[in-house]
Structures are given as C-alpha cells and as structure tokens.
Specification:
This protein is elongated. It folds into two domains: 19-125 and 180-271, no CATH class; 276-361, Alpha Horseshoe (Serine Threonine Protein Phosphatase 5, Tetratricopeptide repeat). The strands form two sheets. It has a two-stranded antiparallel sheet with strand order 1-2. The protein is mainly alpha-helical. β1 and β2 (43-48) form a beta hairpin. It is built from 15 helices and four strands.
C-alpha cells in the first residue's frame, strides 16, 4: 500500500489483507526481538534492550523518544527540492536490502517494537490555534484519551477531508501512524498502515512541518520491525541530516542522537564490518579530524555483534578500534580477548598483547 493510497476505511481501523511477501514480512516483524545477550569467558556481556515507551501528554501522543510539536505545516510541495538533504546508504547495506536477519533471536525473548528514550523527552505544548480544524483535532485527542479510538479516527478523517489545507494535516496523519504503530505490536497487518501514515506526514516539507523529522524516525522503526534494514538505515540517516540542516527545530538534536543509537543494531544486520567506520563517520556529527562520535558508534556496533554471538565481526571491530583509538587500546583488547574466548579462538599471543597493553592487574 503506497502512501497515496490510504482509503477512508483503512484510516477508520479496517485491517488490510496481506498477501505473499508482505504477509511473511509482517509475521516476521513481531517475532524479531531487539534484545541479545551472550556470555564470553565466563563473564557476562550486557544485552541490548529495546522496549515500548509511549505516553500521553496534553493533546498529543508522545513517544518517549521525543516531544514533537509546533504550529503546523504547509500543504505538500509540488517539488522535492525543498526537502532536506539526505545521506546515501552505502553499497554494503544496499546489497542486502530487505533481507531477513540471518539469526533469529531466542524464542523466549520478548518482542519489542519501539525505543524508550530515558532522557530529553520534553512534552510538546497543546495545539495553539483556533478554528473548526483545531476543534476537530482537539476533540480527536480527547477521544483518544478517553480510549475511544473509533471516534478519534472519525474526527481525524473528518479533519483531513474537510480541511485539506489545514496546518494540522501532518499531525493528523502522525496520530494515525502512532495508532497503527502501537496496534502493529499485536496485529502485524498494521505495519503497512503505519508506514503509509508516516509517509503522508513527510509529504509536508520543513521547516513548517514540525513533525517531519519525527515521522522519518518512526519510519526507520517501521522498517526495522519489518526487516527492511536498508530502508530503516535510510530513514534514520534522514533524521540526522534534518538535524544538521534545521538545528533549531524542536527536538532536532535529541532525535538525531536517538537515530544514531538506533541505527547501530540495524547496521549490524545489514552492513559490512569493514565499511562501518566510513558509514558512521558520515552520520556521527564529527567535524574535521574529530572521530569521537564515530568511535562511540563503532564501539556500540562491536557490543551488538558480541551480544548477538557474532564473534568474528566483533573481533574485527575491536581490532579496528585498537588501531584508531590507541589511548583506549587496553579496554578494546580485553573485549577482543573475551570475544575470541567465546568463539574458542583466543591465542597466547592475544593474551600477551592484553598483558602488554594493560599490564598485570
């Protein structure tokens, strides 16, 4: 279902019938967990946990990753030239676009579909404006707070149909997207509708659309849960690019930070370890010769590989970190030895190198 094909019955809650590959992808989405754990050399390596984190605030559904607010948006542009520039996804990712992950998580692991941000989750203000479109939007949010989703859907659809030039159109589609995203945790057929709703939001360009960046962020998560890793990386990259072009936009920096964090596990599924540094360098926010953010993302990637039992990949990244960040070589060498221990490949030379870098402790 394309973004331009959102029939009224779908927005009112009807579940689309999935066929072929779409049904397989949707079924797979709810099986994929974002938590991996592993043990190496008798010592526990921390898992990566992603959990649902949504709450209500005022008249707006606020995922804990950010507060998305503003005064509205302009109608869709006739040209894509007004959209922010994006960072291209490198070839090693495109080579495996839309392929399912090679390793299924353990069957007893919980399924998670959205991130929970523990910081900088500022709540957006209530919608500030007047007119029949604002009344419909507020009534819809009141209905959602009262757990009357059918009424909320009808009110939002009425807003879209009766006030097509309203500044609230992107927020109306965003609200539909949030409902479908939440529903998809138990009904994978709703991933299609969530994607289409968020894509409608992105038709209204910045800077007048205050939820443009957030819609790209949620599209990253829609594709992550659907196993479309290359598309997920593209949307997370768009979030970061937006922050660079519109640094004063509400929550631009916090969303970019969340995107940098959340794209790392996706890259672990889709990208080549040997090209990770170059990919992260484009997105890290590092300027000039600085590589602090890039190294942080690279270290996170190594941990994700280790937590997923991908010891060869973890070793490759730790070896690169030792080369690029000699001041932290001791810690990286220790982690490298742990990974090789878990794979049964640690050698006397590896341990001697650890002794050399870290000393006797």
């Amino acid at each position: 279902m394309s973004a331009s094909a959102l029939p009224a019955e779908a927005l009112l809650g009807a579940t689309p019938r999935l066929r072929g590959d779409a049904a397989v992808d949707a079924s797979r989405a709810v099986r994929h967990s974002q938590r991996w754990s592993a043990r190496a050399g008798g010592r526990s390596l921390p898992g990566v946990v992603v959990s649902i984190g949504m709450r209500w605030s005022g008249y707006v559904v606020v995922p804990l990753v950010c507060g998305c607010s503003g005064s509205g948006s302009t109608p869709p542009a006739t040209s894509s030239s007004t959209a922010p520039s994006t960072v291209d996804v490198p070839a090693p990712v495109a080579d495996v676009a839309d392929e399912p992950p090679a390793d299924e998580p353990p069957a007893d692991e919980p399924t998670s579909v959205a991130p929970a941000e523990h910081a900088s989750a500022s709540a957006p203000p209530e919608v500030d404006g007047s007119g029949p479109d604002y009344d419909l939007f507020r009534d819809a949010q009141d209905a959602m707070q009262a757990s009357d989703r059918p009424k909320a859907r009808k009110l939002l659809l009425s807003l879209i149909q009766r006030h097509p030039k309203s500044k609230l159109i992107p927020r109306a589609y965003l609200t539909f997207g949030e409902m479908f995203f939440e529903d998809a945790a138990s009904d994978p057929a709703k991933w299609q509708l969530a994607q289409s709703s968020y894509e409608q939001v992105t038709k209204y360009p910045p800077p007048h659309n205050p939820v443009y960046q957030y819609a790209h962020y949620k599209l990253g998560w829609v594709h992550t849960n659907s196993g479309n890793n290359a598309r997920a990386l593209k949307h997370f990259s768009d979030v970061i690019s937006f922050s660079a072009k519109y640094p004063a936009a509400p929550n631009a920096a916090s969303l970019a930070s969340a995107a940098r964090r959340d794209l790392v596990p996706v890259y672990a599924k889709a990208g080549a370890p040997t090209k990770a540094y170059a990919f992260f360098k484009l997105l890290s926010g590092d300027v000039g010769s600085s590589q602090r953010g890039t190294l942080k993302m690279l270290a996170n990637l190594a941990q994700v590989y280790a937590d997923g039992g991908k010891w060869r990949e973890a070793v490759a990244i730790y070896a690169e970190l030792i080369k690029r960040d000699p001041t932290s070589a001791c810690g990286y060498q220790r982690s490298l030895v742990l990974a090789k221990d878990a794979a049964g490949q640690a050698s006397a030379a590896d341990r001697a190198r650890e002794m050399q870098l870290c000393g006797k402790r």
